[in-house]
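Pilot study result, target chain (82 residues):
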Amino acid sequence: MEDVPQPASDPYQLGDDVQVYVSETDPDSDHHEKEGTITDVLQDTLGDETGRELDSYSYRIETDSEEIDVWFRHRDLVPVSQ
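Predicted structure:
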């Protein structure tokens, strides 16, 4: 069985290098496996609703000097080093 990369155990910070890791059925699957740098962080109240603090974080990333016009949830990103 293939090892599935896992999101970081702490919120990502501006400048962190990440890779998009979403399923083929995700609406943003065309960005799967793209690598980029965190350029914006948004925190909302979803974590209060789910009981998982990291669900509150969404991020925008820049890849090849172009910002992707999608907010990715914490669970959709993995550290590049994985």
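One observation from the pilot: Residues 45 and 51 are 10 Å apart (CA to CA). A full batch analysis is planned for the follow-on phase.
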